[in-house]
Design brief:
Layout lengths: L1 H24 L2 H4 L4 H24 L1 H5 L1 H30 L20
């Protein structure tokens, strides 16, 4: 029961942070600005998250001991997930008519003459 409550507490924290971010991002003052630093911050936080996950996995003796037996399976699963994700993005982007930057891939005449 304690684990369940701790999980709910963590979930509430995550949802609260997402809601706070959405609230801040929806403000006109923020929406009109180009937040160039945000991409760097996301990259740093993602690298930190991956690092801490690696430390946690490396500290688990059971996982380290079974790496030899699960290594190939994990690699195959990872490659299939990666290929499936790339394929899904390509298909969805094509269905939505978007280019690589997420802009409409329609010619300028169809968009009302606006420049890309």
């Amino acid at each position: 029961m304690e684990t369940f409550l701790a999980t709910l507490q963590s979930l509430g924290l995550y949802l609260g942070v997402i809601a706070l971010g959405a609230l801040v991002g929806s403000r006109r003052a923020v929406r009109g600005k180009e937040l160039t630093w945000l991409g760097r911050l996301q990259t740093v936080v993602l690298i930190l998250l991956i690092f801490t996950l690696g430390v946690e996995i490396g500290a688990d003796e059971q996982v380290v001991a079974s790496l030899g037996s699960i290594g190939l399976s994990a690699l195959v699963i990872t490659l299939f997930v990666l290929a499936g994700s790339v394929l899904a993005v390509l298909l969805v982007r094509k269905c939505m008519g978007l280019d690589r930057q997420g802009r409409s891939a329609a010619p300028a005449e169809e968009r009302g003459g606006e420049a890309p």
